[in-house]
Amino acid sequence: MKSLVLSGFVLAGGFALIAFVERSSFWTLCFLNLLLFLAWIVIYERGFKNQLGIFFALFIVCRLPFFFTLPELSDDFFRFLWDGMLLNEGLNPVGSVPVDVIIDNVR
Question: In the chain, where does DSSP find H-type helix?
């Protein structure tokens, strides 16, 4: 039972991490990540050490909110999308900056 309560804490903490914590608040990010990590250790040791299937299912459920949000902690998110689009077009993303590609397509 305690493991399920801690799992709810991890789910809520993970959601708070992705929804409310800004990337400029470094110490808040570190503290929240440390708390969530310690909670996972306690959940594993006390409740699911011998039930790895349930532990991994719980892990996947707690990761689901992350799949439906933009990665706020990464500046390179849109650059990765841009590089992927260039690769699909057969262009080298390292060889040029986005401005060069846009100007070439306008001409």
Answer: 2-19, 26-46, 52-67, 77-88, 98-106
Site of tokens 């949000």: 69
**Residue 90 φ/ψ region, left for φ over 0, alpha for ψ in the -120 to 50 degree band, beta for the rest:** left
- CA count, 13 A, side-chain hemisphere, 72: 15
Give the C-alpha separation, 59 to 62, whole Å.
5
pTM confidence score: 0.56
CB 59 within 8 A of CB 11: no
CA separation for the pair 94, 56 (Å, rounded): 38
Place of tokens 């299937």: 53
Q: Report whether 54 contacts 60 (CB < 8 A).
A: no
Q: Give pLDDT tens digits for 74-98.
A: 777 788 888 888 889 888 888 777 7
The answer to whether the beta carbons of residues 23 and 72 sit under 8 Å apart is yes
First-to-last C-alpha distance (Å) of the chain = 65
